[in-house]
Amino acid sequence: MVAAKSEIVGDDNVQERMGVATLTRMAFNGQDLGRTATKLIVALARDPADAGALMDLSAIEQLKGNQTGGLDFQAAALSHCQLYTTQSSTKQPKLKLLALAAPIQMGGNTPIDFLLTGSDISLTTLYISPDLPMPIPVPEHDLAVVVAPGDSDTSRRFLDEIERQLVNWPMPVLNKPNRIVNLERDQLFNILCEVPGLVVPKMSRSDRAALEAVAHGETDISEILSEGAFPVVVRPVGSHAGRNLEKLTCQQDVLAYLHQCDDLEFFVSDFIDYSSVDGAFRKSRIVFVDGVPFACHLAVADQWKVWYLNADMEQNDGKRAEEERFMARFNEDFCQRHAAALADLAKRVDLEYFGIDCAEDRNGKLVVFEADNALIVHDMDSHEVFPYKKPQMQKVFAAFAGMIRSRCAGRSVHPSGRPGLREVGVEQTETDAG
Fold first, then answer.
1. pTM, entire model
2. Are 75 and 105 in contact (CB under 8 A)?
3. How far apart are CA 57 and CA 375, in angstroms?
4. Among 13, 115, 172, 337, which is disulfide-ready with 9 (CB 3.0 to 4.6 Å)?
5. Is the pLDDT of residue 242 over 90?
6. What pLDDT, in 10s, does the model give residues 275-286?
7. What number does CATH give the domain 202-270?
């Protein structure tokens, strides 16, 4: 990573960018991002230190599938500035939200600018890393929220640094890092395994050598997954969107898997057959806003590896009709059937905002595959094809904005009388020196 400049910075050094939500919507709608990229490159020719242009180019490259190039642009941007405002839905925002993010791939942090769609809340993002000095002071804000994820060893490093910087933070902070880390897949099982009415796949972390021992018949899969047996599900630590996610049914499958996957660390879990009586697999995404669950989507597919994009929802009228019913009856049906489990889950996770991917087994229990503070929640689906989705997503966005407003209304004022301003790092530096 390129080292950042170390001068003291404040509001005057905040850079404006289009932001992830705006650029993702453009790509999703088929707009030519090449034109936008050209304009940004022209801006950089005039001012090579235009960090906002660099950060938007980072997003564009990653949307094109060039993650390495995108992260290079991000590193260049952060060498000039760590603070970025995102275009607001209103010209006169009433509240200022500060997102504390990690300098990782696009989509790794909570895509919070989607959640603020249509709100009167401005968004500034501060990227925090052990390799980057903290800006002093941070910009004024009414509330801060940690958007860095806890799904990999790299992310944990950034969360630890955010945790360190939050000592004596003057304003309220949502989604504390020490709670986000509990969403790691093996930790989640420990938190949720005793919730009545809930099924969570037993999960263990394994290095490559342990899996190779199973593949060569030197040990049993139960040595990795306590009391486990084939079939199991394996995925690399930190992987997303199904990268190298596979069901292994026997020792030979393990050997074949390792031949085509060169990762070094893996999660191994029980395989849970969550197919319905009709043989289809149904997986839903639910987000919790201040403990209240909201439906985001229902994907229906004929295979166990289900994502919304591979479920062929757009081409199937019956599947969309089922999803519409799921959303329309969510509070009266799904939430009622799983009321106790959902409430207990939200209490144990103890985050103001997070989401789960889940299903129901044939015994009527709720199966939770994943919990994450950075699951993408958006309103980009075609209104013509999915007329029921935008109103549902507006409920989620309104709930999120309402939570921000309610927390700001009850906030305490910093003794300095200047809420949101803090000389970050001074107290920690003195302590370290002592």
1. 0.90
2. no
3. 23
4. 13
5. no
6. 999 999 999 999
7. 3.30.1490.20
Q: Which helix (H) or strand (E) holds 394?
A: helix 389-409
CB count, 10 Å around CB of 6? 10
User: Tell me, what amino acid is at 88?
Assistant: S
Q: Which long-range contacts (CB under 8 A, 24 or more apart) does 48-57 make?
A: 49/80, 50/15, 51/15, 51/77, 51/78, 51/80, 51/81, 51/84, 52/15, 52/16, 52/17, 52/77, 52/81, 52/84, 53/17, 54/80, 55/15, 55/17, 55/84, 56/17, 56/18, 56/19, 56/23
- pLDDT (0 to 100) of residue 426: 35
Are 105 and 67 within 8 A, CB to CB?
A: yes
Task: Kindly list the domain boundaries of the chain, sorted by start residue.
Answer: 11-175+414-422, 202-270, 281-372
Are the beta carbons of 123 and 112 closer than 8 angstroms? yes
Mean pLDDT of 44-59: 97
**CATH architecture under which domain 281-372 falls:** 2-Layer Sandwich (3.30)
Helix, strand, coil content of the chain in percent (nearest 5) = 40, 20, 45
Residue 5, pLDDT above cutoff 80? no
The band of 12, judged by pLDDT with boundaries at 50, 70 and 90, is low
